Amino acid sequence: MMIEALQFEFMRNAIIAGCFASLICGVIGTFVVVNRLVFLAGGIAHAAYGGIGIAFFFGIPYMLGTLGFSLLAAMVMTAVVLKSKHRADTFIGIIWAVGMAMGIILLDKTPGYNVNLMSYLFGSILAVPNSDIWWMLGLSVITLFSASFLYRDLLAISYDDEFAKLRGVPVNLIYFLFIGLIAVSIVIIIRVVGLILVIALLTIPPYIAEKYSRSLAMMMALSTMLAVFFNITGLWLAYAYNLTSGATIILVAAAGFFLSMGLDFLLRKSRTDYQNL
Predict the structure, then answer these.
(1) Where are the alpha helices (DSSP H) in the chain?
(2) End-to-end CA distance of the chain
(3) Long-range contacts of 103-111 (CB under 8 A, 24+ apart)
(4) Would you kindly state where each structural domain of the chain is located, as residue ranges?
(5) How many other C-beta atoms lie within 10 A of the C-beta of residue 110?
(6) Mean pLDDT throughout 221-235?
């Protein structure tokens, strides 16, 4: 069935886009999960909707409007997280809600434009143009280069940021850099796979990978492979049973999440039973 689907260009493009999205989210998502920035990443993803509204309402290029607004929102959120962590979740929640509301209102007021909210929530991975694939390829290269070049600093920050500061690591600068990279990733990927799938790929594969990884690099690699598996499996199921591709990929990832939790429970129970013998 999957071999048959590969005869179609849209399916080949969808798989390529899914693999690039998996690579980007596997690397960036590891940083997000290890540093407990999931709520911040979700805030950026939802605030990006305000940028979409600005782009269409003022007739400016989608990438320019959405990227500009998302980067601004991400930098403000990052500054709040670094300055006042105990109030950060409230502030992020406000920007999250305002961004979404502003985007919806501006799209409602855009003359002659009838927006389909579902297309931005779940994306249209089966209708990926070649231009978006090139954008994702470029971002994949930048992501891999940034993670490789700053790997030691990322490792220090992820496990003890106070010690990293004492070692002279520019913690705040790297936070701003990588959260800016999160914003860019979300903007480029959101049109392809949708807002909800971006959050799922940024969180579920790294969360699972963290349990079975001995290093940050191994976690990045394993989360990327898991994301690729979820994407390809979800696309195959969507094609085979005529389902919405984005929602199917999310449910496959969720099944993997609950399966890993069940496996952890069984392993802990077996260890406890063995110790009690």
Answers:
(1) 2-5, 9-34, 38-57, 62-83, 85-108, 117-122, 130-149, 151-159, 161-166, 171-193, 195-211, 216-241, 245-276
(2) 49
(3) 103/49, 103/50, 103/51, 103/52, 103/53, 103/54, 104/49, 104/53, 105/53, 106/50, 106/53, 106/54, 106/56, 106/57, 107/52, 107/53, 107/56, 107/57, 109/57, 110/53, 110/56, 110/57
(4) 2-270
(5) 16
(6) 94
Counting every residue written for the chain, the total comes to 277
**What is the fold of 2-270?**
ABC transporter involved in vitamin B12 uptake, BtuC (1.10.3470)
pLDDT given at position 118: 64
Q: Looking up tokens 């994949």, which residue turns up?
A: 140
Could you tell me the pTM of the whole model? 0.88
Max alpha carbon distance in the chain (Å)? 73
For residue range 27-65, what is the model confidence (pLDDT) as tens digits?
999 999 998 888 888 889 888 888 888 988 888 887 888
Query: How does pLDDT run across 100-150, given as a tens digit for each residue?
Result: 899 889 888 888 765 566 667 777 787 788 888 888 899 999 999 999 998
Cβ neighbours around 19 below 10 Å, total: 17
